[in-house]
Write a structure and sequence with these properties.
By secondary structure, the protein is mainly beta. The protein is 7% helix and 42% strand. The chain has 3 domains: 91 residues, no CATH class; 143 residues, no CATH class; 282 residues, TolB, C-terminal domain (Neuraminidase, 6 Propeller), CATH 2.120.10.
Length: 532
């Protein structure tokens, strides 16, 4: 039984979840008489995901998969015959374990469009490429990834990002390997279409390559040099790359924030190892004049937004200077606390987001710069679902939503589109996609890095689990995290090396450092967050 079935290069790929551990099943459809000359088999399983011609992953709720293979007996040499597959389904069909072994998730980077406070911010666009060498193109993983970068963003992300590479730019013909030299300089040979780029645009092109490849090469890339049809175009040092990072506003921000049992907002300073003594923040949120139930801290850590313990009011205040608590910026009219305001979240552009869960008028709200009149954001793909919780990505172009419908809460990723003028933009969340369709009861989420989330949820009939999920919905064999009981919320940082934090029912606030097990940090406290 073949482990994979191939057809045209570049066709979509899909893989069934096998009914047994062995892989997809083949069923003989013909009788013995017919099998003397030709035969038909049916390949069956459960289809759980597809990868399209852009190498973009799309998870699916498991559905039955059945495709027919037609084989004929052909004479290949004098006196010798062999069975050959005559008709195959489009694409490549793989079992999940084979897919994870043969392919890997990588991030390619493009620039966010729209107002970004005058900054050029890179956004991760996850795709899947072959591990090691592609047997068709003979390209190594790094070269495959650069090729997909030059081909442009995936269709899902395309409306909100741009590439600085001139149209038609591609790798120079014959390039199959990219690796840094002994000085950790990576040279990328491009065709003559790249020659039209100006110096500023070329540096931005180099930043796209540097961010895309920095996790792929065994040696750290210290410098990227782009070469065009007429020779060297430009170069960018790794030390200069952070100016293009979406998380540079929180770079080095080690602090964690939580609500104590008095409703005060507290901070744990410089908690690189997840330990430290909480102290009330400066200002009215730390004074506790109004008890708070949840908090979100701007990525520059100068301001915080907090929702009152009743869930009715949203306040914004400085956490650096003293002062009186200002009037709430948002008020929910819902009768029940569970139907009022969600925990707030800040994006990397300095905008504040919150959901009002009032059944009489549910709405997603954005406060530009964390001030002023809240703007309602359209979410056309909700289809009757209610937003329970939201987390904004650092780049500001993606939003993670927990949506409840028909008694199930699922994780969905939406694309934040901005139209109109910068003074009065029209903002909507488009093209919602389930990111973990196998989880039917998701209770907590947090962004963890540029294109990854940590998710707490259950499969149908299963127990609670904590795992990493990529923004495109893909998971790896190492995605599952050590077990921890009764998790109520999770918090992860832009810096993936900082500990993962979780609030539990019995053990209080616990931490998980890379390569370690869960450890209790605080017995009291709730709603712990990193900036964002």
């Amino acid at each position: 039984m073949p482990g994979a079935l191939g057809s045209r290069a570049g066709a979509p790929r899909c893989w069934p979840r096998p009914p047994t551990a062995r892989g997809p099943l083949l069923h003989d459809e013909d009788n013995r008489a017919t099998r003397d000359r030709e035969t038909t088999y049916t390949l069956t399983g459960e289809k759980v995901a597809t990868v399209d011609a852009q190498s973009s992953y799309r998870p699916l709720a498991p559905t039955a998969y059945a495709q027919t293979l037609h084989l004929v007996l052909e004479q290949v040499a004098e006196g010798k015959k062999e069975w050959r597959i005559d008709v195959v389904p489009d694409g490549l069909v793989l079992g999940q374990s084979d897919f994870r072994r043969l392919y890997r998730s990588v991030n390619k980077y493009y620039y966010a469009t729209g107002s970004t406070n005058g900054r050029s911010t890179l956004v991760a666009d996850p795709v899947h490429v072959r591990n090691r060498t592609d047997p068709v193109t003979r390209m190594d993983t790094a070269t495959q990834t650069v090729r997909t970068l030059l081909a442009g963003p995936t269709n899902w992300l395309r409306p909100v990002v741009d590439s600085r590479f001139p149209t038609g730019t591609a790798l120079r013909k014959g390039v199959t390997a990219l690796a840094p030299d002994d000085q950790n300089v990576l040279k990328v040979p491009l065709n003559n279409k790249a020659d039209s780029a100006g110096r500023s645009a070329c540096r931005m092109m180099a930043a796209q390559v540097l961010f895309t490849l920095r996790d792929l090469t065994s040696a750290r890339v210290e410098r990227v040099e782009l070469e065009g049809g007429k020779g060297r175009l430009c170069a960018l040092d790794a030390d200069d790359a952070p100016e293009f990072s979406a998380d540079r506003g929180s770079e080095g921000a080690d602090s964690q924030y939580l609500i104590n049992d008095k409703g005060q907002v507290e901070r744990i300073l410089d908690a690189t190892d997840g330990t430290g003594t909480p102290e009330p923040v400066t200002g009215p949120l730390g004074a506790g004049t109004v008890p708070m139930g949840s908090v979100g801290v701007a990525r520059d850590e100068e301001r915080a937004a907090a929702v009152s313990s009743s869930g009715q009011h949203l306040y914004v205040s400085s956490v650096e200077t003293e002062g009186e608590l200002a009037e709430p910026l948002v008020t929910s009219e819902a009768k029940k606390a569970a139907d009022r305001l969600s925990p707030p979240s800040w994006d990397g552009r300095g905008d504040l987001w919150v959901a009002d869960r009032d059944p009489a008028g549910p709405r997603l709200l954005r406060l530009a710069g964390g001030t002023g009149e809240p703007q309602e954001v359209r979410v056309p793909g909700l289809d009757g679902a209610r937003i329970e919780e939201l987390r904004m990505s650092a780049d500001g172009v993606r939003i993670a939503l927990l949506l409840t419908k028909d008694g199930r809460t699922t994780l969905n990723i939406g694309r934040v589109e901005r139209r109109g003028s910068s003074v009065a933009p029209e903002i909507s969340v488009e093209d919602l996609r389930q990111a973990a369709p196998q989880l039917t009861d998701v209770s907590a989420i947090s962004w963890s890095g540029r294109s990854r989330l940590v998710v707490v949820g259950k499969e149908e009939g299963g127990v609670q689990q904590v795992r990493y999920v990529q923004a495109d919905g893909s998971t790896s064999g190492s995605g599952a995290l050590p077990g921890v009981n009764q998790v109520q919320s999770v918090a992860a940082a832009d810096d993936e090396q900082l500990p993962l934090m979780a609030e539990t029912v019995d053990d209080g606030i616990v931490k998980l450092s890379p390569g370690d097990n869960w450890q209790t940090v605080l017995k009291k406290g709730k709603a712990l967050v990193y900036p964002g």
